What does this fold into?
Amino acid sequence: MPTLTINGMNVDVPQGTTILNAAKEVGVEIPHYCYHPKLSIAGNCRMCLVEIEKFPKLQTACSTVVNDGMVVRTDTDKVRKAVTGVLELMLIHHPIDCPICDQAGECGLQNYYMKFGLHRSRYALEEKVHKKKVQDIGGQIVLDAERCILCSRCVRFLTEVTGTRELDFFSRGDHSEISIFPGKPLSNNYTGNLADICPVGALTSKDFRFKCRVWFLKAFDSICTGCSKGCNVDAHHKGDILYRLKPRWNDAVNQAWMCDFGRLTYKAMNEARLLTPFMREEGARKVAAWGSLLPDVAFRLKAAAEKGGPDRVAVIASPQSSNEELFLLRRLATELLGTKNLAFTHRVAGDGFADDFLIRADKNPNSRGAQLLGIPDGEAFDALVSKIAAGGIDALLVFGNVLGPLSEEETAALLSDVPLVVQVGTNEGPVSKAATAVLPSASVAERGGTFTNHAGRVQRFRFGFPPRGKAKNPVEILVALGNRLGAGWTFAGEASVFKAIAGTEPPFSGMSYDSIGMFGQEIKG
Ligand code: SF4
Ligand code: SF4
Ligand code: FES
It folds into this structure.
């Protein structure tokens, strides 16, 4: 392990470490633009220049590997002058856009100018070279070519990660600019990542631009619900409105990336939400209070199980539910209602598109969790649907907003003859249109819990903000219903439910929220 000194501090780092990464170990910030930990090293921006003893010239910290005994300084006048000079050069032709630029607040140029620049420009405003602005280049991206600092992160991402190579540099000298090839827009499923990696306001997100200044946003750790990959994300919100999802780094799952479809899944948490509990009477929705609706629903479910026998009661679970919710739901169905009619389906309407990178065909975050918790999928779901269609069910409890791949018409036809359909769901949809009673559920941003991804990795999603409207955490709904059915449950929140799962369900045995941590934990076996 080589030992070097950086600004007088000794540091031991593994062989092959670059100076830029060694500096991080001792808390020394070396400014950089073109370097990105998940892309190859280009060494073209020259922002990371450092002084190394016995080297005649300044060296780039991102591309220089440490040697034993190296003496590095990042705090000398020579380095400061060089870095300020690089910034000044980059800003010569940069437009004076900060007040109207959507990158403001998270722009590498703004931030480094305040820390390492603060120079007076020696260049006349009128002589700036102008390039194309506000171009829709396809995917989720808008390009403002004159803000680009030619760092090539986007080019390397499209070469090394997606392999689609839609962007490149054109022209020479100060007319050099980033662009797509004529008539060939971005065409891959990961374009949103370009806005994340562009260090300036050249590539911005079509969806997020001008929706909210970034300094008003707060973030919390979450998991994308768009497919069974379970990409780790940071969810950004202001109050109870979600504004964007960004990939949270997890080398075991999504590295530093997420797909375009997943990036927009936050919208369902803002729009067409079920916000008030209601009962349907003579076809019309009547708003109900939780205090009366929960006992009423529990009473009717119990009455149906007693009158026609447990076989005339059914429960459809959702692979969008957490492990904690599925565990309680299974117990409610099998132990409290005593029915064997319990199933879910991982299938959804649509093509189930998948690729060989992140995107999985199963468009649910927790099908694996449902299977591991003993809730049957596939044929069991089809058999249950047939039983409902044949008039064999008097009371049905449904979690989720859709019945798998069934269309709105098919769902309406299936549920129209069931005397009691109780839904616990987040959004208006085929099920809420047909349900007799709707119990509005907190979205994934408004509650906490765990999902098990396709590979058996149990991952936590965190509470971001309180449920919108009168929606409730489904764990709370299940505990209240369970106790009305005689469970005597004392669970207080998802953490206590997970403890019970870890104590009784072999795949999860010994796990805890602590052991799952930030990056998840694989199930045993
Ligand atoms: S568009 Fe952004 S990421 Fe691409 S080269 Fe320019 S500054 Fe770098
Ligand atoms: S690959 Fe799946 S989990 Fe990852 S961002 Fe896309 S939809 Fe979400
Ligand atoms: S970060 Fe080192 S040259 Fe760009």
The first helix runs from residue 19 to 25. The domain at 278-522 is CATH 3.40.50.740 (Rossmann fold). The chain has a mean pLDDT of 96. The pocket of FE2/S2 (inorganic) cluster (ligand 3) is lined by residues 32-35, 43-48, 60, 62 (CB under 6 Å).
